[in-house]
Amino acid sequence: MLGAIILILLLGTEIGFTVYCLLTKSYQKEKKSIAKIGIFLFLSVLVIISIIKWSFRWYLLFFLLFIKALIAVDYLIRSKGKIKKTFKRKYVMIACIGNLCFISLAVLPALIFPQSKPIMPTGKYEVGTVSYTLTDSNRLEAFLDNKDNRKVTIQFWYPKNANGKYPLTIFSHGAFGYRGSNRSTYVELASNGYVVCSIDHTYQAFVTKQTDGKSVFANKQFINDSMAVSNDKYDEKKTYELSHEWLKLRIDDVNFVLDDILNKTKKSDSDMVYHLINVDKIGLFGHSLGGATAAEVARERTDIDAVIVIDGTMLGEGIGYKNGKEILNKIPYPVPILNIYNEEHYKSALKHADSYANMVAAKNATDARNIVFKGAGHLNFTDLPIASPFLASLLGTGNINSRYCIQTMNQVVLKYFNYYLKDDKELELQEQY
């Protein structure tokens, strides 16, 4: 909203001066220079008093306005005694069109990522964060030809200035997501006494910012294959093979990270965050493909106490493909599991309950729950609709209130983990929100 208001203000000023110049048949450089300086100072004051929250979304605009203000100051200082140029309408119109384009481009980041009220955590702990880029000496990077070992970047959110041991929860993002996709969820958990570790699955994440400053973007072939699978361009067998290939990479990432964390909790010289972890209380959760990852890792390991699949299909439950059909695992799912669905996903799951992995696993599980959010879309279970409603709508949101959805989901996640990782006596969850 603020970006749109500022855009209208700047475009209106530019158009107004253009009309004024055309009517007076003068370039009105002195008045325009004063206006440019005034606009820059006015918006700077808005930053100082925190109406405009200084961030990346304003960098281009303020750079443009700063340059314009400098040129205006230079003109006012050096314009005295200069002979005025002959007025020509076409120059005014060309300048107007150019300025409108530059202004629109400069404000674009503020429109795509509008300022929004942050989702505040409910817990009593101040939250700290720290990142690490780990190298897996046992795996080569499958996305590279130079035989480098795979690097995985993780980020912790944890109770700051706290004593004691806290449950560990590990998060896996969706395809094209990144480790910060559910920051509000991590902060909510950490503020309530959890150590949260979110993993960037390198080359499957939209971008991985490593601790050495290097940025690694998603692999082009992975993007193309993912889009083809989403649009049903591949047959079922190829889709099965690709999805399990992606899943294996992620499972290996989570196992590597979890084992690394557990090893470091035993070492006295490890960083402080590792000494906050209660290794006997571990939960896994993830969104979309990350949810499938969490579910399969929890099935394979014996040290996981609870798992949450956030709007994902449990791909790992498919243990083979024969005669044109996927073979599902019939061994009872061994860990308490919660499936969170958007409405359309849940309707489809119910329709194919006898052959859909999540439903079959839940039916055979020792402890399983399903929750559906009415009106939610796939991306409503991330922070993207808050950070960028425009981008989120392009990728898939529903008509549910985005803030209500993510805040409610965060509370569901907290309550579920409290019950299984902190031994809360009751677990009060609705089947539908």
Summarize the structure.
With 433 residues, this protein is α/β, with parallel strands linked by helices.
What does the model show?
There is one protein chain. The chain is α/β, with parallel strands linked by helices. It folds into two domains: 2-112, no CATH class; 127-421, 3-Layer(aba) Sandwich (Rossmann fold), CATH 3.40.50.1820. The chain contains 13 helices and twelve strands. It has helices at 2-24, 29-48, 59-78, 89-112, 183-191, 220-230, 236-265, 289-300, 343-351, 357-364, 384-387, 389-395, 402-421, and strands at residues 127-140, 149-159, 166-172, 195-200, 207-209, 215-217, 277-287, 306-310, 318-322, 325-328, 337-342, 368-373. Helix 1 (2-24) packs antiparallel against helix 4, helix 2 (29-48) crosses helix 3 and helix 3 runs antiparallel to helix 4. The longest helix has 30 residues, at 236-265. The radius of gyration is 27 Å and the shape is elongated.
